[in-house]
């Protein structure tokens, strides 16, 4: 396929490189020249402009920072593509903007999908991302072979916006379960309970969850995780905060009660304020006492 790839950053660069390695004709574009050159070094052919990349493309993939940027790129490009081109946005953005992007694409005679990912930069490089996808069956069918290259799993969650909805619900739950895990292990410590013993119990009991079993925030306990690498990400706490804020926007727009999601957002806000970027979200275990008092 002829693929335009807009946004070649930490995630987009390796995703575009994997498509190109698999034999697709990929033309990439990023506003930042230095970042574009990094993708070129991994084999991605560069276009001189976003418009140039889109000309004659079968699929236009975007991997951009936020909803406003995605909408402005759609405004810029939708009129230039051939009718029926698939616009596939893999960015994590708010549900409302995703729905607006779908409406704009439909109006312009294009097919469209929202398909945010989980799996991080490691997953983008290894081609093992999970895609959560919203949009029509027709668009999904056309993009499926590309999901199979860039990822190991794609779930068609429903109509336009459903992918973004799935992503923020999952990540809100992940934040809550990570904080719950941190609370349990900190309490165990104060009760003089051995942390490995607690891991052995929880990981095979009703408290079992991904935050304990796979990504335990305690060094030396459970399978290797960022805790064993001084909390180097992994999944950066600032990205978790971005997703939590999107979940809280969606909750207020739909009048949904998310008291634990709101509290998790406030704790991660304080955590990111204190540490900035470059810290895994599981590191919150070390600051819970202080953050709770702040
Ligand atoms: P990034 O900042 O590294 O990449 C975004 C790129 O978009 C930048 O290189 C920027 O120059 C480019 N860009 C911005 N506006 C543009 C425009 N108008 N035209 C062309 N290029 C433009 O971010 P990232 O880490 O690659 O994340 C991309 C998206 O994926 C975000 O929505 C993020 O929330 C999501 N995400 C990231 C991760 C992760 O671990 N990094 C994991 C899951 C999802």
From TrEMBL:
Q: Where is the 3-hydroxyisobutyrate dehydrogenase-like NAD-binding domain?
A: 161-286
**Gene Ontology molecular functions:** 3-hydroxyisobutyrate dehydrogenase activity; NAD binding; NADP binding
| Listed pathway(s) | Amino-acid degradation; L-valine degradation
Q: Which UniProt keywords apply?
A: Branched-chain amino acid catabolism, NAD, Oxidoreductase
What SUPFAM superfamilies does this protein's entry cite? Answer: 6-phosphogluconate dehydrogenase C-terminal domain-like, NAD(P)-binding Rossmann-fold domains
UniProt xrefs under InterPro entries: 3-OH-isobutyrate_DH-rel_CS, 6-PGluconate_DH-like_C_sf, 6PGD_dom2, 6PGDH_NADP-bd, HIBADH, HIBADH-like_NADP-bd, HIBADH-related, NAD(P)-bd_dom_sf
Q: Which reaction does it catalyse?
A: 3-hydroxy-2-methylpropanoate + NAD(+) = 2-methyl-3-oxopropanoate + NADH + H(+)
In this protein, which residues make up the domain named 6-phosphogluconate dehydrogenase NADP-binding? 2-158
Short name of one Pfam family for this protein?
NAD_binding_11
Q: Which residues form the active site?
A: 167
Q: GO annotations under biological process?
A: L-valine catabolic process
**EC assignment:** 1.1.1.31
Q: Belongs to which family?
A: Belongs to the HIBADH-related family.
Q: What is this protein called?
A: 3-hydroxyisobutyrate dehydrogenase
The organism named in the record is: Maritalea myrionectae
């Amino acid at each position: 396929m002829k693929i335009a790839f807009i946004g070649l950053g930490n995630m987009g660069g390796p995703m575009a490189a994997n498509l190109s390695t698999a034999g697709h004709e990929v033309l990439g574009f990023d506003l930042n020249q230095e970042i574009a050159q990094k993708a070129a070094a991994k084999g991605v052919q560069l276009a001189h402009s976003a418009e140039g990349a889109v000309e004659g493309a079968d699929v236009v993939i975007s991997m951009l920072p936020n909803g406003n940027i995605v909408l402005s790129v759609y405004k810029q490009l939708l009129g230039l593509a051939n009718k029926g081109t698939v616009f596939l946005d893999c960015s994590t953005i708010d549900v409302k903007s995703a729905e607006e992007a779908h409406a704009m694409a439909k109006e312009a005679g294009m097919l469209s999908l929202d398909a945010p990912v989980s799996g991080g930069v490691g997953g983008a490089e290894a081609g093992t991302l999970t895609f959560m996808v919203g949009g029509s069956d027709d668009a999904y069918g056309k993009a499926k072979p590309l999901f199979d290259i860039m990822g190991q799993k794609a779930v068609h969650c429903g109509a336009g916006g459903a992918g973004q909805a799935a992503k923020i619900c999952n990540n809100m739950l992940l934040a809550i379960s990570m904080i719950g895990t941190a609370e349990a292990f900190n309490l165990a410590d104060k009760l003089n309970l051995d942390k490995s013993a607690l891991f052995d119990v929880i990981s095979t009991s009703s408290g079992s969850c991904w935050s304990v079993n796979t990504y335990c925030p305690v060094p030396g306990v459970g399978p290797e995780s960022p805790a064993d690498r001084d909390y180097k990400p992994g999944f950066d706490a600032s990205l978790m905060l971005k997703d939590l804020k999107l979940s809280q926007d969606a909750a207020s727009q739909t009048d949904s009660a998310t008291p634990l999601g709101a509290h998790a957002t406030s704790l991660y806000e304080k955590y990111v304020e204190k540490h900035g970027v470059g810290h895994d979200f599981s590191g919150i275990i070390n600051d819970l006492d202080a953050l709770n008092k702040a």
